[in-house]
Each structure stands twice: as structure tokens, then as C-alpha cells.
Amino acid sequence: MSEGRDTMAETTRWFEDFAPGAVHDLGRRTMTRDEIVAFAADWDPQPMHLDEASGEASLLGGLAASGWHTACVLMRLFADNLLAGSASLGSPGIDSLKWLRPVRPDDTLALTMTVLDTRTSAKRPRLGLISARFDMTDAGGATALTMTCTLMMERRPTP
Amino acid sequence: MSEGRDTMAETTRWFEDFAPGAVHDLGRRTMTRDEIVAFAADWDPQPMHLDEASGEASLLGGLAASGWHTACVLMRLFADNLLAGSASLGSPGIDSLKWLRPVRPDDTLALTMTVLDTRTSAKRPRLGLISARFDMTDAGGATALTMTCTLMMERRPTP
Fold first, then answer.
1. Which of A78, A57, A75, A79 is nearest to A67 (CA)?
2. Rounded-to-integer distance, Cα A78 and Cα A59, Å
3. Tally of domains in chain A
4. Residue B134 counted as domain residue
5. For the residues B18-35, what does the mean pLDDT come to?
6. Where are the alpha helices (DSSP H) in B7-159?
7. Is the pLDDT of residue B91 over 90?
8. At what angle do helices B67-78 and A33-43 cross, to 10 degrees?
9. Pairing with A79, which of A69, B30, B38, B44 sits 20 to 30 Å away (CA)?
10. What is the mean pLDDT of residues B95-118?
């Protein structure tokens, strides 16, 4: 994988750098009405994501971002603030993802990643597996999205 | 919720229209290199999603779509081919999502939804809950993405 990562900045984070219980601050991003509507028009064109009146008439109680939009913001913050320069080998999937609150225009979402567990692969000694929980919280500290998934991370080369 | 849905076409699908074991064809979409790279640049700017050389050097073995891009294509097909005109009330989240194969430029993905189980809410008699599995398969019939989630759907009004 090193050739792949060498196209990025020098690798600064390896499997061994993720300790169970550690909480990583992955930054924040403010949602805008224009971005919420544009994302929904492309990927999730349900009325409650496209205009205020339909949002108010829906369970969401007002115009709210597609849950996939919130998840994509999570991915971008994760890529920019942790994966870049890491020995990441990707992820096989998501174990659980919950949308707990509507995300509104001008909401600022903060992302943290909590390391739940780490283990190395028996079959592939260079591969480490990290079980992590991601939490996106609004300015009031309420959780809007929580997700657990497994990350694959290369182990630090031994000199 | 009806006001919200009335901004769409007339409601033609209610909770009662989803039977356990039923498989719904939700259409297909061909991925393009330009869309794969543009989506990754916006939401998942990891090298293996942005250029061929980095893709070939990665576990993906070539330029491949972000898994979030494939998930967004699933959502768009679901919105266009099932949710529009339905009594959908959204979803609380994803129970499991697995990315099983890389998705390449020019791959055509077909989406099906299989109804696993249905139940009505004890607390909210107008609300039905549908457990469903979504499978995206490539032209060769191999599964690229599989996801299970719970859908909330309003029950058909009684005359």
C-alpha cells in the first residue's frame, strides 16, 4: 500500500497510534441551506430535504439535511483531519449508523472518533483492525449522528 | 404527514403494500469516471478515489468509487423508484452496510430492495416499520454493496 500513500503527505499515523479509549477531535463544519438543498437534489430528492414547507409538514419538523449529506460531511472531516497522512487501508463497511436529530441550515456539526477496540489480523500480519465510533454533535452538544465501523490500518514498519 | 407527501405525486404506496419476502426492483445506474472523481473530491478525497495510479497501488486495485458515492447512488435510485409517491416517514438509521467489491468507472449497478420483516408501532398506530435489505449488484451479478435498515411508512388510511 505504501506506493498509494506516498502520493499523500508522509505517513504520520499507523495502526499502533490508535489506542482503545482515545478520542480524536476531527473538526467541525457548518451546514448551509444552499448545500443542504443541492445535495438533496443530487442524491436524496425527498421534499423535506428540498423546501421549508415540506420539511415543516414532515416528521423532521422543518427543512433538514439528508442523512446521507450528514454522513458525507462526516467522511470529509474524517478524510481531512485523520486519514490524510495515515496508513489507512479503507473500511469493509458500517456496523451501525443512527440519525438521532434533524440537521438544519446553519447548524455547525463537530465530529469526534472514539477508538473502541483494536486488533491485528491473524491472516495478514501487516494489517491492523480498529473498531471506532464516530459522533457528530451540534452546537448545543446534542448528537445528530452516531456511527460505528471497522477501519483497516497498516501496522508501523519495524526498522 | 399527508401535507408533506401531497407536495409529491399522489400517494400510491403505504405500509400495507410491503410484504415480507417481496423483492422490489429499484432500477440501475452507470457510474462514470468523472462522477466518481468529482464525488470523491467533494466528500472522500482519498487518493484511490481520485486517480488510477493511486487506485492501483491501493487495496482496491484500481480507481474505485468512494463507498459513500455508491451509497448515495443507492439512495437516489430508492428515492426515484420507490419513495416518490409513497407514505414514507424516513428512516432512523442503518443496521449494517457492507462494501463487498470496488465500483469502477463504467460499472452499471442494479438495486433491489428485499422486505425482511414488517411490524406496526405499539405507541403510534399510524406508523408501520419495515426492515429491508438493499443489494447493489454489478453487470456480472456480483454484489458490490449490501445494506439493511429500518424504514418508517405510514399505514393506509381506513375509509
1. A75
2. 29
3. 1
4. yes
5. 98
6. 33-43, 52-56, 67-78
7. yes
8. 70
9. B30
10. 98
Average pLDDT over residues A148-153: 97
Residues of chain B in contact with residue A48, where contact means CB-CB under 8 angstroms, are 4, 90
Residue type (1 letter), A104:
R
- Domain containing residue B71: 12-31+65-154
CA A136/CA A71 separation, integer angstroms? 9
The model's pTM is 0.93
The angle formed by the CA atoms of residues B40, B45 and B50, to the nearest 5 degrees, is: 65
Rounded to whole angstroms, the Cα distance separating B132 from B15 reads 12
Which residue of chain B has the CA closest to A43?
B76
Q: How far apart are CA A134 and CA A147, in angstroms?
A: 5
Domain assignment present for residue A55? The answer is no
pLDDT, tens digit, 9 for 90 and up, residues A92-122: 999 999 999 999 999 999 999 999 999 998 8
**Strand order across the A127-137 sheet:** A23-30, A108-120, A127-137, A143-154, A88-99, B88-99, B143-154, B127-137, B108-120, B23-30
Under the phi-then-psi rule, with left for phi > 0, alpha for psi from -120 to 50, and beta for the rest, what region is B139?
alpha
Contact A1 B59 (CB under 8 A): yes
B75: distance to nearest CA of chain A, Å? 6
**Distance (Å, rounded) from C-alpha B10 to C-alpha B20?**
24
Residues in chain A: 159
Q: Do the domain assignments include residue B78?
A: yes
Complex ipTM, two decimals?
0.93
Is residue B100, in this structure, part of any structural domain at all? Answer: yes
- The answer to whether residue A2 scores a pLDDT higher than 80 is no
**Beta carbons of A45 and B79 less than 8 Å apart:** yes
Q: Percentage of residues in chain A with pLDDT exceeding 90?
A: 87
* Alpha carbon A43 to its chain's center: 18
* CATH code for the domain in which residue A22 is found: 3.10.129.10
